[in-house]
Amino acid sequence: MEYKSIKRYLDIISATFGLIFFLPLFLIVGISIKLESKGPIIYKQLRLGLHGKVFTMYKFRTMYLGAEKEGVYELKGDKRVTKVGRILRKTSIDELPQLLNILKGEMSFIGPRPPLTYHPWTFPEYTIAQKKRFMVLPGITGLAQIQGRKDLDWDRRIEYDIEYVDKLSFLLDLKIIFFTILKVFSTKDNLNLSETAKKKEDYPYIKLMYPTNDPKIAKIAEDSGVDWITIDLEIRGKKERQGHLDTLISYHNIEDIKKIKESISKAKIIVRINPMYHGSKEEINRAIEDGADIIMLPYFKTKKEVEDFIRYVNKRAEICLLFETPEAVKNMDDILNIPGINYVHIGINDLSIGYKRKFMFSLLADGTVEEICNKFREKGIPYGFGGIARLGHGMLPAEYILGEIYRLGSSMAIVSRSFCNVHRKDDYEMIEKIFKEGVRDIRRFEDELRKKDYRYFLKNQRVLKAKVAEIEENMKNPIEVKKEDRLKEAKNKRNKRYSYCILTTMSSSIDYWIKPLLPLYNKQGFDLTVICNMTPEYKEELLKNYPYIKAISIPMPRGIDFFGSIKSIYLLYKAFRKGKYHMVQYSTPNASCYGAIAAYLARIPIRLYCQWGMVHVTMKGIKRIIFQIIERIKCLLSTHVQPDSFGNLNYCRKRLFYSKKKSCVIWNGSAKGVDLDKFDIKKKEIYGREIRRQYGINQESIVLGFVGRLGKEKGCVELFEAFKLLEAKYPNLRLLFVGPIERADTINPELMDWFYKNKRIIKTGKVSDVEKYMAAMDIFILPSYREGFGMSVVEAQAMGVAVIVTDIPGPTNGMIAGVSGLTIPVKDIKALVAAARDLINNEEKRKKFGYAGYEYVKNHFDSKIFIKKLLKNRILLVKGCYKK
């Protein structure tokens, strides 16, 4: 389902809850307005809405009565604004009544702000292009509002509004909401988040060209904003010239032209042929026939070579000359007089070799490139020079090179191969992310450059010269990088440690799920950070036992807490930005929600959602819809989703929570496997006797077992009601209840009173040696309404215990129905009683199920095998990542 079709439903749900939630605030604000000045609480104003339709917009009144008669303007310290009004405007609370406009279908939470019917223009006075902003419902906040609306003229506001219409998506809305909230509490008025920040001048961006022969990467580059895709056929003499350098040499072939042509639609194909030789004519003909738009001639030296080249092309494609020899520069005046040249480019890598410079950008620092560019400019031929990496990357950061490109009037640049340097060349998801962010950053930087005056460019030139001088001084040999340096770099790459952050809500989750894996992650070269809501004492103990990790305590409220949730997301966002993690893993309902949003906004490359259960599956009505939407948001914002059972995997794929590509189950499921050294079936008899003796359970008694927290969703109501019926028939029956009593309030008091008073129910509380208690059980029961996997089911079988579970995803993936246990419908007391009777009355069947369960667990859930596969998965995920 497209986002546009569900946006209205989200608006209605959110506005309804917003009105209920903010009702006390409405009353306080209304009283405050009335006490300070005469007039209505709500200010009504006619605005232009969807398709230019006029509607009445509501706001809390912030000005004295009749103030609008003095005109439309905003001044600091405007005396027309009341004292209460200043507070309302500063916090944007004055916009809250527009929740009513949302319910009426006149507005949305996110969209272009509705203008007045007469200011800046009436609807007919907007141009056709500008009217595009009226194609969606107006919003309480929008893209222009998070850019600093007071600093924007109307043309810029409309540009942002049109951009929003073009790029409307759930993720964009989520980003706008987040930064609107930040903006309310921030003194900064401009957060600079737009995808485009064009000046009014109609000044084109520089042409970007990227070399690749991979059709998928070519398409990604084109979609990201690369203008030309380069097929590099040059091999003649190139290895001899550049083989000693730390540069990549392309090995494209002429067949690649057709493949790239078929994969792209807008970008031009520029083919860099070999220097002129006896087969040049055939090579040029083939390149043009296969779809080349531009033919580039490299490494020429004489005027005749260029004349022959242009004659062979014969106006069938555009011409680009690559000046990269001192001889070509020397003969430049004669060469540039040849008609038919469309573009020229300076290949400063080879040219620096020809001039025997230490560093290729030495030519940019010493004025050589500037002299050549001046010649090009005199001839009126579009020109470019050098290559650029991502912003902040490269020996000489791309920012300085872009500054020179703009100072010298260059109109094109090669995007260097290091721009998208990933370990796995088929990791297209990562490549797409790098391209989109990298090209966008370049375009944003260009927007900033357009605003600079000459003083900035002179300063940039001075800094660049100093940087180049520093690089030259540190280079051991001119141009050549010594072999030991390359070996050292390769070793550093092998020893590179990846930043891995694990997020969960409670410290108990760390104890059970995370702690056993920490030493193994550290051994594999991960720099680990653990984030949860932990006490100072717990944090101190954690760091003492695991000194190689970092621990951060961030409060994460359980349940529904709007302001607490916003605070948690903001704190996580700051922690993620500071940590610059390669991968963030999150699990548990609330932590995964906060973590997914914060990690997405912080642009963490790998966002891993460990889906260990879904809360919405047991809900009904509007509550189910809301929590299902939240689950979809978590999955959407994550780059990878790993359920702990195939049941949940298939459930979510079938309902389009996520695709097959971004989801998987580790081995056969679970979150960590079963430690068969701890759950040692050989010690079953010893453990069983010990526990029965400890709690006074007769060896002849039949023990039903349950492991987990007490609560309705765990099926405790059905378990207790079933035990009531069973104990009446079987006097020697006992119920061993192992786990904390956390959610007793979810069960009716009468049943809980019976539970506490019943002496046949042994209540152990939380225990650390659960394997001993399972050894004392004859039948393990898990009547849960929902589970991620149901680890206790697998652990019980590891101790040779027959199991009864509800027929839901998770538990049924950890046993074999009819072989190692029985399944029953959810909330079915009669079925539970019948299944229990079946096993109580048949000792041989219990033993048969127990043995089969042990064999199944041993072959499918051994933690030693599981952890190996888990570590392999984590290593594969982070390989190819990069620190921003």
UniProtKB/TrEMBL annotation:
Domain HpcH/HpaI aldolase/citrate lyase, chain residue ranges per copy: 210-358
Transmembrane feature ranges: 12-33
Ranges where the Bacterial sugar transferase domain occurs: 7-185
Pfam families, per the entry: Bac_transf, Glycos_transf_1, HpcH_HpaI
Keyword Oxidoreductase among UniProt keywords: no
Keywords associated with the record: Membrane, Metal-binding, Transmembrane, Transmembrane helix
Chain ranges of the Glycosyl transferase family domain: 690-855
Keyword Transmembrane: yes
GO molecular function: glycosyltransferase activity; metal ion binding; phosphotransferase activity, for other substituted phosphate groups
Family: Belongs to the bacterial sugar transferase family.
Descriptive protein name: Glycosyltransferase
Annotated source species: Herbinix luporum
